């Protein structure tokens, strides 16, 4: 099959229809720009859904991948490998963690975290302490376990019966959580910054209160930093800015900069419950992914880069406020670092995807975070002039959408 025959129509002909990709097909990326099959350039404010944190084809990541590809691709977990051990050691040095488990996606990392929590509870407290508390709205992955924990009916309908022993309470509602937690609770899982569910940050009081109540009830606290971690918030991991340390942390997306890899971080005492043979994954900790992630971690752990993320947050927010002064389409602009949410006013509710399409027409990639929120998750090192160029395209997209609506 030659390249000219690869069109968007081919997707409909050969792929399972669980996605609805845009009409364009990117073929090349560099930094914060992509080019499609016709050579048109696009500014990337989406970052592959908060994944390409260092942009496309970063030279150090390309070098790490190429160097490792010449040496060793895969050995499975019958053997260990140097890139995995080096990455795990570095993650332990940079975080609260003492032990690391590698997988391939955020859902797998969360699945491992939830299984570990139940296994730890069974080991030390018995079979009655199995309840997991999660928050609405939230998103923790697409396995049957994690999608049930996420608690959104639109993702679970038709897949019943669902795993049991999961309770949901409203996010940022400490009183509701205090009423729900009990001695039956083995674990609590939350995103410090909700990603898919509207880019809503936990309040410091909420996180601190959750930590204290988990301690009182001997429940493990799991932070899902699949999206808000890896420098995205302006800190290496979001928990660091809050001063609240979890028992287990999950990370993926930006960890590999576009190469599939995830990790679950925890303490040595908790990790003991995943004894030999109790959990596993064929590709987890493969040398290619770990070599790339090691290069990513070296770059994003630089304090100057993290300070740059916080600076770029201010640049984005100033530009978005300027746009909103002109059009008045946003009720609230929020987020941390370079995970930003633009909540639409009531008059525009339900139309976030219209903004995505309008932006694409102006050769700009942005995301949704539900029907009422536009989400931006660009590269952590996107140059300021590219930010301004992208914001101009966003402004043109909104101008066109507003003019169409008022006609």
How would you describe this structure to a colleague?
This protein is α/β, with parallel strands linked by helices. The protein folds into two domains: about 5-60 and about 305-405, Aspartate Aminotransferase, domain 1; about 70-300, Type I PLP-dependent aspartate aminotransferase-like (Major domain) (Aspartate Aminotransferase, domain 2). It has 15 helices and 15 strands. It has helices at about 10-15, 45-50, 60-70, 80-95, 105-125, 145-150, 155, 175-180, 205-215, 240, 270, 285-300, 305-325, 350-360, 385-405, and strands at about 25-30, 35, 40-45, 100-105, 130-135, 165-170, 185-190, 220-225, 250, 260-265, 330-335, 340-345, 365, 365-370, 375. Strands 4-10-9-8-7-5-6 form a seven-stranded mixed beta sheet, sandwiched between helices. A four-stranded mixed beta sheet has the order 1-2-3-13. Strands 11-12-15-14 form a four-stranded antiparallel beta sheet. A hairpin with a 4-residue loop joins β2 and β3 (about 40-45). It is globular. About 45% of the residues are buried.
């Amino acid at each position: 099959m030659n390249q000219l025959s690869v069109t968007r129509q081919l997707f409909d002909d050969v792929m399972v229809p669980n996605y609805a990709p845009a009409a364009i097909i990117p073929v090349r990326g560099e930094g914060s720009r992509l080019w499609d099959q016709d050579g048109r350039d696009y500014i990337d404010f989406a970052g592959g859904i908060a994944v390409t944190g260092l942009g496309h084809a970063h030279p150090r990541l390309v070098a790490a991948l190429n160097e490792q590809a010449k040496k060793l691709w895969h050995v499975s977990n019958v053997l260990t490998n140097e890139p995995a051990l080096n990455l795990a050691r570095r993650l332990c040095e940079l975080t609260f963690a003492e032990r690391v488990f590698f997988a391939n996606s955020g859902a797998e990392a969360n699945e491992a975290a939830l299984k570990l929590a139940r296994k730890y509870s069974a080991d030390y407290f018995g079979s009655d302490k199995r309840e997991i508390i999660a928050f609405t709205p939230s998103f923790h992955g697409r396995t049957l376990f994690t999608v049930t924990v996420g608690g959104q009916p639109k993702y679970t309908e038709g897949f019943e019966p669902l795993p049991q022993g999961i309770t949901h309470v409203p996010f940022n509602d400490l009183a509701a959580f205090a009423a729900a937690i009990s001695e039956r609770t083995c674990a609590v899982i939350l995103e410090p910054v909700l990603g898919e569910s509207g880019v809503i940050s936990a309040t410091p009081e909420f996180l601190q209160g959750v930590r204290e109540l988990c301690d009182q009830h001997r429940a493990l606290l799991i932070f899902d930093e699949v999206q808000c971690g890896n420098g995205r918030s302006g800190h290496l991991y979001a928990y660091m800015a809050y001063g609240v340390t979890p028992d287990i942390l999950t990370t993926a997306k930006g960890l590999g900069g576009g190469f599939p890899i995830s990790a679950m971080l925890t303490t040595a005492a908790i990790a003991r419950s995943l004894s030999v043979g109790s959990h596993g994954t064929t590709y987890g900790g493969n040398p290619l992914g770990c070599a790339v992630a090691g290069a990513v971690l070296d770059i994003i752990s630089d304090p100057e880069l993290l300070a740059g993320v916080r600076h770029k947050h201010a640049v984005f927010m100033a530009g978005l406020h300027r746009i909103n002064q002109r059009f008045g389409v946003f009720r609230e602009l929020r987020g941390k670092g370079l995970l930003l949410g633009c909540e639409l006013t009531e008059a525009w509710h339900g139309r976030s995807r219209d903004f995505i399409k309008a932006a694409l027409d102006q050769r700009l990639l942005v995301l949704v975070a539900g029907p009422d929120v536009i989400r931006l998750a660009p590269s952590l090192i996107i140059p300021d002039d590219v930010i301004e160029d992208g914001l101009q395209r966003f402004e043109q997209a909104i101008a066109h959408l507003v003019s169409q609506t008022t006609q």
